[in-house]
TrEMBL record:
Enzyme Commission identifier(s): 6.1.1.20
Amino-acid positions noted as binding Mg(2+) in the UniProt annotation, renumbered to this chain: E277
Protein's UniProt keywords contain Ribosomal protein: no
BP GO terms, sorted: phenylalanyl-tRNA aminoacylation
Major site of localization recorded for this protein: cytoplasm
Quaternary state and interactors: Tetramer of two alpha and two beta subunits.
Cofactor info, note text: Binds 2 magnesium ions per tetramer.
Organism from which the protein derives: Acidisarcina polymorpha
Stated name of the protein: Phenylalanine--tRNA ligase alpha subunit
GO molecular function: ATP binding; magnesium ion binding; phenylalanine-tRNA ligase activity; tRNA binding
């Protein structure tokens, strides 16, 4: 195929243009009679569509660029038809303009070994959380969740933290901006504990309940080796007729033994939470030294692990408005809450809480 000169247009009238383009279409036809192999197709493509030397570009340069403004549209329309004609021929030759070399480069070598995806593993934090949850599931507890963005009512007021109560200060709360115009109880904040889900659960279902609630909580704590402003808790709630402090002790003692091993002992210390009365902190015998005293337990033999207590009748009284079954004269219950990071760090001997959030594979692989 020779690079013929582009004939000059005899004029810009419709007939002139039709005649000129018809000649080129004939040319396209002639040059496409023998497109039987890739080589020929590629030649045809280059001859017509080549970006620098292609005939289509030459035609555009010769006819379109120099045409008077009002003829451009008419030439352009015919030009597009011509381009379609060339494309059609390329397509029917079974090739849309990919050269053999290109095809070879893009071909898939089915004999190559596949890409192996490394097997994933549960994150040590999530693994710990799931293990804690399943200890309680085995005792007949169900599992629930609740929102991380909470109202002041559920995070505090319904749990017997009245406005301005000093107990609120123990939970450095991150509040959502621009809530000042709402009544206090409706203002949004990041939940500081999973306890609001106790209330949400009781409002939804009549007693008895036995539920554990794993989840993320937020506090305005400075990050250090053992603190993070975002961490995880597992909450528990058990309500029914005649639930006693002995049930609480037995349940948590069993749970700690199931989780850490049967030789672990528990002891309960008086504590304070506005929504439980009486309240207790639970310690377990040091899992590192077995209770004889070591650096990990600060030579006390005990490690403090969770907070708990009997649900305060004042909490039931508030829930009662929505679920009459929670009559403090007829039901009693206990609740507990524990920090998952602390437990995971103890269990796996992790000294920096930040490692749990680093996403560092060298760290995570150790738990796979
Ligand atoms: N919500 C309490 C806290 O985060 C823990 C707790 C839960 C205490 C349930 C008693 C009962 O500090």
């Amino acid at each position: 195929m020779s690079q013929n000169q582009i004939p000059e247009l005899s004029g810009f009238g419709g007939d002139d243009l039709d005649a000129a383009f018809a000649k080129i279409v004939d040319e396209v036809q002639d040059s496409s009679t023998n497109l039987t192999d890739d080589e020929a197709v590629e030649q045809f493509r280059l001859h017509w569509l080549g970006r620098k030397q292609g005939r289509l570009k030459a035609i555009s340069d010769a006819w379109l660029k120099s045409a008077p403004a009002d003829a451009k549209k008419h030439i352009g329309q015919r030009f597009n038809k011509l381009k379609e004609e060339i494309d059609r021929r390329l397509e029917s030759a079974g090739n849309v303009g990919i050269s053999r070399a290109q095809l070879a480069a893009e071909a898939i070598d089915v004999t190559l070994p596949g890409l192996r995806r490394p097997l994933g593993a549960e994150h040590p934090l999530i693994k710990t959380m799931n293990e804690i949850v399943s200890v309680f599931q085995a005792m007949g507890y169900s599992v629930g969740v609740g929102p991380e963005v909470e109202t002041d009512y559920y995070n505090f007021e319904s749990l017997n933290f009245p406005p301005n109560h000093p107990a609120r200060d123990t939970q450095d709360t991150l509040v959502i901006a621009n809530q000042e115009r709402k009544p206090l109880r409706d203002r949004l904040l990041m939940r500081t504990h999973t306890s609001p889900v106790q209330i949400r659960t009781m409002e939804r279902q009549p007693p008895p309940v036995q539920i554990v609630i794993p989840g993320k909580v937020h506090r305005n704590d400075a990050a250090d080796a053992t603190h993070s402003p975002i961490f995880h808790q597992v909450e528990g709630l058990c309500v029914g007729p005649k639930i006693t402090f002995s049930d609480l002790k037995g349940t948590l003692d069993h749970a700690m033994k199931a989780f850490f091993g049967s030789s672990v002992k528990t002891r309960f210390f008086p504590s304070f939470f506005p929504f439980t009365e009486p309240s207790a902190d639970v310690q377990i015998s040091c899992i590192f030294c077995g209770g004889t005293g070591c650096r990990k337990c600060k030579h006390s033999g005990w490690i403090e692990l969770l907070g708990c207590g009997m649900v305060d009748p004042a909490v039931f009284a508030l829930v009662q408005a929505k679920q009459p079954g929670y009559d403090p004269k007829k039901v009693s219950g206990f609740a507990f809450g524990m920090g998952v990071e602390r437990i995971a760090m103890m269990k796996y001997g992790i000294s920096e809480i930040g490692q749990l959030y680093s996403g560092d594979m060298r760290f995570l692989e150790q738990f796979a």
